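hey
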């Protein structure tokens, strides 16, 4: 389930038929939706409905956490 409905511009492409996004710019293990806005000489179109929904991969390695038990000075 999406946590926020705030839309942000992440990438802009020219007239290429396919666009690529770098997943490293997204937070890991989170769901995102993509919508499209067209820009031409007449101006900017309204945003499309969500065209694609995807989830970024979870981190491959667990974070390092150090715990100290029974530590005396």
């Amino acid at each position: 389930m999406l946590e926020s409905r705030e839309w942000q511009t992440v990438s802009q492409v020219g007239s290429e038929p396919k666009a690529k996004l770098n997943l490293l710019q997204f937070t890991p293990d989170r769901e995102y939706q993509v919508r499209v806005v067209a820009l031409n000489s007449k101006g900017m179109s309204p945003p499309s409905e969500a065209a694609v929904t995807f989830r970024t991969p979870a981190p491959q390695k667990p974070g390092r956490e150090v715990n100290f038990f029974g530590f005396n000075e």
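Residues 26-55 form one domain. The chain has a mean pLDDT of 77.
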